[in-house]
Amino acid sequence: MSQQNPKVWFITGSSTGFGRSLTEAVLKHGDRVVATARKPEQLDSLIHQYPTTAKVVRLDVTKPQDVREAIKAAIDAFGRIDVVVNNAGFASVGAIEEVSDDTVRRQFETNLFGALDVTRAVLPTLRQQRSGHILNISSVGGLVSFGSLGIYCATKFALEGISEALAKEVAPLGIKVTIVEPGAFRTEINGQGLVIADTRLDDYADSTGGILQWLESMDGKQPGDPDKAATAMIQVVESDNPPLRLALGADAVDTIAAKLESVKAELDAWKQVSLDTAFEGSVVSAIGG
Ligand SMILES: NC(=O)c1ccc[n+]([C@@H]2O[C@H](COP(=O)([O-])OP(=O)(O)OC[C@H]3O[C@@H](n4cnc5c(N)ncnc54)[C@H](OP(=O)(O)O)[C@@H]3O)[C@@H](O)[C@H]2O)c1
What is the pLDDT of residue 117? Predict the structure, then answer.
C-alpha cells in the first residue's frame, strides 16, 4: 500500500516480538521505518522486501553514542522522524532481594535509560518539526507491580512517570506521547527475553515462587497477538486524538481496572488521616492543576 503522506517511524528492538510485528505492519501500511536492532542481519528480509522504505540501523539502546548516531542516520535517510517507538526491553525475574546488582542496573539501563536517551536525542528534531508522536512501550506492570517482577515493573513505573510529564511538556509543541501497556503477548519475552535471578531464597518461595513457573508455562501460549497489537498502535498514531495510555489485552484492562479500584478504595478509607496533615488554616489545591 502506498501512502499519500507517509510517516517516518523509528523503532527500537525490531528483531522479534512487538518491534518486529510493528515494523512489518508499518511497512505494509505504506509508511517508512528505521528499524533498529542489536543484530541488524535479523532484519535482512525486510530490506529485500522494502528496499526504499525500510532502513535498518544497528542499535543497542544502552549505548548513548550509538543512540545519537542512529537518530542521525534516520534523519539522513528520510529527512524527518514522525513516530518514535521505545520498545526494546527485557524482563528480569526474582524477588527484590534476589536479583543481582548487575541485573538491576542492566534492567534500568535497557528499559528506562535506553528509552530516555532515545527520547532526549530525538526531541530537538520533533520540536523543530512542531510534530511527532512518541510511543513508549510500558506494560500492565507499569501500573501494577507483581512479586518477583518488581525490578522490571520499577523500570516501567519510571517510564510511565517520565512519559506522563513529557506529554504535558511537549503538547504545546505539537508532539504527542502515548504509553502502551500490554498484558501477556506471544513474543520472545518469556523465553530468550527472561533473565532469571541466580539466587533463589527459600524464604520467598511462597510469595514469589509461582510467578516464574507461570511465566515459563505461558511461553508461546500468551493470549495476546503482537500483530494485532501492531494494528492497534498504528490506529493510535493515525488518530487525531490519541490516548495518553493504551492498555492492550483483556488481561491488561482487567488488571489495571482492579488496581484503580483498590487505589480509590484505600484513598477513601484513609482520607481523613490524609487530610489531617495540613497546617491549620492552609489552603490546599490539587498538585500541578
Ligand atoms: N510480550 C509481553 O507480554 C509484554 C508485555 C508487556 C510489555 N512488554 C514490553 O514489550 C517490549 C518488547 O518486548 P517483546 O515482548 O516484544 O519481547 P521480545 O520478543 O523479547 O523483544 C524484545 C526486543 O528488545 C530488544 N532488546 C533487548 N535489549 C536491547 C538492547 N539493549 N538494545 C536494543 N534492543 C534490545 C531485543 O533484541 P535482541 O533480539 O537483540 O535480544 C528484542 O528485539 C519490551 O519493552 C517489553 O517490556 C512485553
Answer: 98
Alpha carbon distance 257, 245 (integer Å):
13
- Contacts of 166-170 with C-beta under 8 Å, sequence gap 24+, read 166/119, 166/134, 167/244, 170/123, 170/126, 170/127
Helices 150-170 and 101-108 pack at an angle, to 10 degrees, of: 20
Please report the pLDDT score of residue 44 as a whole number: 94
Rounded Cα distance, 196 and 212, in Å: 8
Question: With 70 as the cut, is the pLDDT of residue 277 above it?
Answer: yes
DSSP 279: P
Q: Which CATH superfamily is domain 8-256 in?
A: NAD(P)-binding Rossmann-like Domain (3.40.50.720)
Q: What is the pLDDT of residues 26-49, one digit of tens each?
A: 999 999 999 999 999 999 999 999
Determine which residue's CA is closest to atom 11 belonging to ligand 1: 87
Residues belonging to the active site: 138, 152, 156
Asked whether 176 and 233 are in contact (CB, 8 A), the reply is: no
Q: What predicted TM-score, i.e. pTM, was given to this entire model? A: 0.97
Ligand 1 interacting residues, C-beta cut-off 6 A:
12-13, 15-19, 37-39, 59-62, 87-90, 110-111, 114, 137, 139, 182, 184-185, 187-189, 193, 222
